[in-house]
Amino acid sequence: MRIALDVMGGDHAPHEIIAGALKWSQTSDTKLILVGREDSIAKELQDKTYDNKKISIVPASQIMGMDESATALRTKKDSSIAVATRLVKEGEADAVVSCGSTGAQMAAAVFILGRLEHIERPPIVAAAPGVGGKICLLLDVGANVDCKPQQLLQFAALGRVYASIISGEDNPRVALLNNGEEESKGNSLSLEAHTLFRQQNNINFVGNIEGRDLFFGKADVVVCDGFTGNILLKSLEGMAMFLGKECFKEMGKLPIVFQQFDYSRVGGAPLLGVNGVSIVCHGSSKSEAVFNGIKIAEQCIARQMVSRQIQALNKMQ
Questions:
Q1: CA end-to-end distance (rounded Å), the chain
Q2: Which of 136, 235, 278, 303 has the fewest CB atoms lying closer than 10 Å?
Q3: pTM for this prediction
């Protein structure tokens, strides 16, 4: 396997990105391609011990800032995220991993790798912790604020594939996020999507789910529009931060359960619905998160995520 790593993306680039890469190279035979400014990479690798058969460098002269919009990709064609994504497109790498601007990575994936057939808008997926150590996938969490019922159905098919990859579930259960479990609840999008989902034989639809049930194993994949998903995700992050601080005040330490909300333990998640493996990591990622992000990339490659998404989408047509 060959994984292209955007070493210039993220709040702690390139030091923490390269540190995570070197740590991974000690545990795997996967070849890592460090993409970025040669002088910065050389400085980080100086005096480091590593296998140069596993670590190579591809230069990229430009950097996409965390605050830059996706449109900046047009003028920064030699940015590290663009170059790394092109390596996947050209068959020089099997996946790309980045901690940089999500918008820029999404744009690079769509315009360089391209969308899968039958996919109108690729979604972003996030994992919510649940009872018994199981996770629940939530998508979309921000890529598409306005959605149509058919697009939510596409999200469901993509989410099921990824759920099976990371959990081993043969037939992941899909639910729609709603303000009630009843079929009659919800806005026009929810009602139309519910009718459409019920007509499908290939998504294991279990009905509506409320936000409070996200953690209790009622579904493996929960689908919503990106506007709703992003608000829910940020609310959960804020609640976890608040409760964590309050627990620390009272107990002097954080309960172990809060480790499940630690993004560094997850590492990252793939952009779904694009013709290649592109792993999005948190912008504040340090070496542990980068390490785990590379692990996700390996899983997606080994378990043929792209071809399995294509098969799932074809079954719905």
A1: 32
A2: 235
A3: 0.89
Count how many residues are written for the chain.
317
pLDDT for 261 equals: 66
Q: DSSP letters along 75-121, please?
A: T-TTBHHHHHHHHHHTTS-SEEEE-S-HHHHHHHIIIII-BPTT-SS
Mention every residue, 6+ apart, whose C-beta is less than 8 A from residue 221.
136, 137, 139, 156, 159, 160, 163, 172, 173, 174, 175
85 lies in some domain: yes
55 and 127: one domain?
Answer: no
Clarify whether residues 100 and 48 are in a common domain. Answer: yes
Residue 10 CA: distances (Å) to CA of 23, 67, 280: 18, 11, 11
> Domain residues for 173?
120-266
Sequential DSSP letters for 180-244: SSSTT-S-HHHHHHHHHHHT-SSS-EEEEE-GGGTTTTS-SEEE--HHHHHHHHHHHHHHHHHHH
Token pair listed for 281: 């990591």
Cβ atoms within 10 Å, residue 65:
14
pLDDT band with cut points at 50, 70 and 90 for residue 260: low
- Check whether 317 has a pLDDT greater than 70: no
Q: Is 94 a member of any domain?
A: yes
Q: How far is CA 71 from CA 80, 88, 106, in A?
A: 15, 21, 11
